[in-house]
Amino acid sequence: MSTPEFVYNGRAMRVVFGCGSRIHIEREVHTLGARRALILCSEEQRALGASVADQLGARAAGVFDRATMHVPVELVAQARTVAASLDADCVIAVGGGSAIGLAKGLALETSLPILAVPTTYAGSEMTPIFGLTESGLKRTGTDLRVLPRTVIYDPDLTVTLPVGLSVTSGINAIAHAAEGLYSRDANPLTSLMAEEGIAALARSLPRIVAQPNDASARADALYGSWLCGAVLGSVGMALHHKLCHTLGGSFNLPHAPTHTIVLPHALAYNADAAPDAMRRIAQALGHDSAAQGLYELARANGAPVALKEIGMLEEQLDQAADIACNNAYWNPRPLERGAIRALLQRAFDGSAPTDGL
Ligand code: NAD
Predict the structure, then answer these.
(1) Pocket lining for ligand 1, CB < 6 angstroms
(2) End-to-end alpha-carbon separation of the chain, Å?
(3) What is the pTM (predicted TM-score) of this model?
């Protein structure tokens, strides 16, 4: 088989991986050439933010613990004022996509380097993509200034992630890899990362459900989420991410559960248009169908499978289908409003996915 032509966008960043690797935070701040780090985290993870500050000693400028979902621009402005008043020369984002998203908003305005210490599987730390919410509207963009310079993956910090969120966050990561396999920009390298990332998460999530503090399962899941995040950072996404963006942004549905519920149906929609990607996803899941395999992974591990379970109203489905079809974007199968409305209905009801409908 000949190697196809492709473009591979490798992202220049340093990754430090391993249980207990948070002990290297000070070394990594030093490696960045920084002296005063502002630590960003959510209110819920304030204790973790404070312990990172303790660990850093003189290199800690302070802790800003107000990170929330969707990165409101007002919050970025507050963080910017705090960073300036403390004379910070780098930011450390400790937490999930919300804390990392706040660091990105700050970096976009100040070019401060980011050291990310992710504690969920969302994958934002691997991408130059930012999201900001202004007057209720979320806009996203891409800018290399927001790409973290260094990422410390310490699986020990994920042990406290509740089991339910571990499963949905893990399937959120799988979504990046699954869409990466049929992306218009897919290439041999990202496809290898995608397959390995899906396999690592598919084998580790049931182990985490069985024993949430299983260190080797936590390490395997974080390794998988790194690879899936790297795929998201390198190639374009399609229908699934667009639908989840619509559902999260317009109907305020929770991020990771929404991804978990929609993914099997988005894959079923695209199944006939991307058979090779589906075969590779299925193989990585150890199942004979990509869509069905993901549906079963979610159900067997106690994750929600119906949008009605997470706050969506049936009367919102038409509007969701309209929004998803309004802005043109690439997808392996053309966007057909009727079929997308039917997809949303199945996701709403929690029905099993049906390939090609
Ligand atoms: P999150 O960061 O909002 O975290 C969810 C909750 O879990 C928070 O309350 C957080 O404090 C808590 N939490 C996180 N880690 C924990 C741990 N180890 N133990 C206990 N509690 C913990 O959720 P998320 O799913 O990580 O991120 C979602 C956000 O990230 C969305 O806004 C999404 O748009 C964004 N995102 C962006 C990108 C990108 O490339 N820009 C990629 C993925 C996600």
Answers:
(1) 42, 44-45, 69-70, 95-99, 101, 119-120, 122-124, 127, 129-131, 157-158, 160-161, 165, 169, 232, 255-256
(2) 32
(3) 0.97
